[in-house]
Amino acid sequence: MPPIGSYQLSLAVYTVTFVTGLPLNLLAFCAFVVKARRRLLPADVLLLNLTVSDLVLLAFLPIRITEASWEMKWKMPDFLCPLSGLLFFSSIYLTTLSLTGVSVDRYLSMAFPLRYKTGRRPAYAVAAVALFWVAAFSHCSVIYVVQYQAKGNDTVGNLTRCYATFTDHQLAVLLPVRLEMFLVLFCLPLGITAFCYARFIAIIRSLPLVSPGRKRRAIGLVAATFLHFLVCFTPFNISHVVGFVENKSPEWRVYVLLLSTFNASFDPIIFYFSSSSFQKICLECLQAAWEKLQLGWLCPGIWPEAPENVAMAESQMVQ
């Protein structure tokens, strides 16, 4: 059984994440699309992928909310359990891999500014993103293997719990894969990210022509990004190691998973403060959306009409 109180806490965190994360990530998605149309950079591809992975998680979060409201009892169609689990957990590792890609891009642009600027191509970032998706989905597909490879337990056929209780035979398959995920999808990205940001900070501190204010801002940004990486993903991945050692899925895993879930609300905030141009585009997107909403509320019949009718409606608003 899940720990006492986990239903209510999960319901609260999932709901807050969905309510805050969905509009923020939709705004970020809009901003990245606009930015890509003007000038597409490798960092934009990586950050757009980060936004897409968050939106995938948020799209299936209502299933988690419903499950939590039913005290983690699975009453939905059976096929949704492994499908939602695959996309939910894959999006978590897509985030760690994308954040690692961003750290590499920032380090290379700082360490080798001229060579990297002339040699970088968005196509390379697209290839990296494709590799991220393959790595995340191939590892998380163990959910399907575990879900259907055994019989006679409450995770197969006539589900009562979704991906929560396992037989010894299932654990023999699941726990080694989780340990591999800890090493390949967390430790390796964490090590690369730590190296890139440590070198980034060392290089920027040594630049004499950069003002102290800009140095502090850049160092604060990468420090906040790395801290966000540690806080949101370390506890959840440590549960893989503990589970492997204890030969069971830790009961407290449900709590640390909430930190990784809430990450979907943090990412857009980091994007916003990472670039002044991104802030400007976000404001442009908000202004455009607000203007369309105003026209829709005041003149709901104008959209199918000719452009001159739109102009007339706008003039009426001014009057």
UniProtKB/TrEMBL annotation:
Pfam families: 7tm_1. It is a multi-pass membrane protein. It is found in: Cell membrane. Gene3D superfamilies: Rhodopsin 7-helix transmembrane proteins. GO terms for biological process: cellular response to fatty acid. It comes from the Eukaryota. The keyword Transmembrane helix applies. GO terms for cellular component: plasma membrane. The keyword Cell membrane applies. PROSITE patterns: G_PROTEIN_RECEP_F1_1, G_PROTEIN_RECEP_F1_2. The chain crosses the membrane at residues 12-34, 46-65, 85-104, 124-146, 181-207, 219-242, 254-273. Residues 24-271 form the G-protein coupled receptors family 1 profile domain. SUPFAM superfamilies: Family A G protein-coupled receptor-like. One of its GO terms (molecular function) is G protein-coupled receptor activity. Keywords: Cell membrane, G-protein coupled receptor, Membrane, Receptor, Transducer, Transmembrane, Transmembrane helix. Belongs to the G-protein coupled receptor 1 family. This is Free fatty acid receptor 3. It comes from Chelonia mydas (Green sea-turtle).
